[in-house]
Every structure is written in structure tokens, then in C-alpha cells.
Amino acid sequence: MKGILMLATIVLFCSTINATAPTDSIPSDAKDVSSPEAIVAAVYDVISGPAGQKRNWDRMRTLFVPDARMVPTGKRPTGESTRRTLTVEEYITNSGPFLEKDGFFETEIGKKTEQFGNIVHVFSTYESRRTLNDEKPFMRGINSFQLWYDGERWWVITILWQSESQDTPIPGKYIGTKN
Prior knowledge:
By secondary structure, the chain is an alpha+beta fold. The chain has four helices and six strands; from the N terminus they run αααββαββββ.
């Protein structure tokens, strides 16, 4: 009986480790995951493109840990604050068709980075346009990236974001700051 209990404990422990181990749908590009700056740039690159262009969602998957979350926040017309928590797959399914149909280019216009050991927080201010030639962005906001270095490469753990509004303009300290 002790042997069966020990074996069950080992199997449970090993399956827990495997369930949380990062996996890729395809191998990651070493350039994409070599630094916090590179992985943030890769996320912007994947979601950006002209109308009608398919995005490389397999590349997107290689940037995130399997249990990563993407969390858009905002306000309802009633003024109530809201958030929606998505897996990377849910983001691809829900947002991918719109990005590909209408065209979407998200460009970083400011960054504030803080690091402690193997974790990094990046406040990345963005502008969004439908085409690269659009004179003005249709949206601006801040993406809050939480990144983790596993000893070999960087991973996105979470992206939490909020678009700018009349009630919540982006403070000047987050525009043009590259540190």
C-alpha cells in the first residue's frame, strides 16, 4: 500500500510539473525571446499588419507561457470599470478576425521598464492605426507586460491593458520614455 501511495504521489508531482512547463506550438525564434525589449516588439509585430493579411498566430503562441493571460480593461457606458480575462487562444479567436479584416498597426510610443531578478514589468504606451499611413491614431493606451526569464529565454506571463479615454488621458511621463 505504501508503494502505491508513493507512486501516486510521484505521478501527481510529475504531471503537475509537466502541466506548467512552457511549450511552443512551433519553436520560438531566439531573436524574439532574447530580451524584454525583443519579446514586447515581437508581440506588437505579430498583431500588426494590413487589412487582409493573416497574422502568424503560431509565432504569437511561442511568446507566451501556456497559462498566460491577456486582460483588456475599460469602462462600460454606465461608467462601471470592467475587465475581461482571456487566454492567448481566446484572444486569437476573438481579436484575430478583426485585426486581419480591418488592418491594425500598434506602435510603441513610450516605455517604462522595471526589473527584479528574473521578472520584468514593462509599461508600454501604444498608438493604434488601421494603416501605417493614417495621420492620427484611432486609439492609444498602455499595455502592462509582465515578463519572466526562465534561465534560457523570456516569456510573456500577462498583458493587462487600458485604452486612453477623455476621463483617463495618458500622462506625459509615459510618452517618449524609453527606459
